Amino acid sequence: MMMDADLRCPQCNSEHVYQDGSLWICPECAHEWNPDAAAGAAAVDESAVRDANGNILADGDSVTVIKDLKVKGSSLVIKGGTKVKGIRLTDGANGHNISCKIDGIGAMDLKSEFVRKA
């Protein structure tokens, strides 16, 4: 068993960790982890825009609205099940990271948590 000199517990930052099979264990906080799996999880792109089901969205995708959404500043409502084609991903304000055009309503920004990939 070989100790990795710079390996520390990701939860409490203790340097007193030991290996047990493929897992590393911290005797101070009892946290167990696999550094290889953690490295793979860190490689996942955190900046990717994901829909309500966790699917990664891209420019040009089609999405479906999953619940009724009131349009701020008007009496219009986007009904759940409305299909939106050709979305554009943006760095919009307040989490509105999808820019699109909805038939009958016009151009608008949506939050990705209220859509699913079609």
UniProtKB/TrEMBL annotation:
Residues 49-118 form the Protein YjdM C-terminal domain. SUPFAM superfamilies: Prokaryotic SH3-related domain, Zinc beta-ribbon. Pfam families: YjdM, Zn_Ribbon_YjdM. This is Protein PhnA. Belongs to the YjdM family. Residues 8-34 form the Protein YjdM N-terminal domain. InterPro entries: YjdM, YjdM_C, YjdM_N.
